[in-house]
Amino acid sequence: MRVADSASSYDDSVTAFKGCDAVIHLAAIPNPVDKEDWKVHSNNVNSCFNGLRAAAECGIKKFCYASSVNAIGLAYANKPLHFDYFPIDEDYPQRPTDAYALAKQEAEIQCKSFVDWFDMDIAALRIHEVAPLKDVQKEHKENWDEAAVGQLWGWVNPEATARACMLSVTSDKMKGFQVFNIIAPTTTQDTSSEELAKKYYPKAQIKGLKDNQSFWTSDRAKEILGWTHDEKE
After folding, report:
1. Cβ atoms of residues 40 and 103 within 8 Å
2. Which domains does the chain possess?
3. Which of 79, 85, 166, 179 is the most buried (most CB within 10 A)?
């Protein structure tokens, strides 16, 4: 395993990738809070391109890109959130209204293009808040409107996330370009998801939310990658 010192440097990326069989690209400014829009957008879009192009130059065919649930427009939106339906799948319309979300959407477009350009297999993982359940529950309690309601009460265990990354570059069924929701199957709340949806997003169509089921579906990851989120905490 090798780590590039700076994803913003194409030459460093090429050096790091030489001799590798696959790339798991996690590098990015992780959120836009108190940061200039141009810097977040430029860094995250360019670092994704550098990683993809460096992998292609090195002849690497398997690539995992750490996208985000924010690729549809979510936690950092500059407009009021509204949702068409729950649970959200990978075909859900993308409506970014902030630099971070826009950069994630554009990075996914790059990933799709590189599949055609260099015959690569590229998985874009839309990952939610990566942390143990108790930590996310604490954050949601302390910042209900932004962290809980604004992020649809979602979370994902770190070990489950790492497993998804590895499966995305080792699964024989992972071909071409695919987007995967990588999210725990339950929310951080005991309150039923349908009750939360009706209270906070009453205009959204509910296609089936049982108990505290996640507002996102990860069925595609299970079907193609064989990924399941077995961790309870």
Report:
1. yes
2. 10-77+89-132+157-184+217-225 (3.40.50.720)
3. 179
Contacts for 148-152: CB closer than 8 Å, 24+ residues apart: 148/188, 148/189, 149/200, 150/74, 150/75, 150/77, 150/81, 151/69, 151/74, 151/75, 152/74, 152/88, 152/187, 152/215, 152/216
Whether the CB-CB separation of 69 and 126 falls below 8 Å is answered with yes
Q: How far apart are the two ends of the chain, measured CA to CA in Å?
A: 28
pLDDT tens digits for 20-79?
999 999 999 999 999 999 999 999 999 999 999 999 999 999 999 999 999 999 999 999
Phi, psi of 120, deg, nearest 5: -100, 160
Rounded to whole angstroms, what are the CA distances from 2 to 6, 20, 46?
12, 8, 20
pTM of the model: 0.95
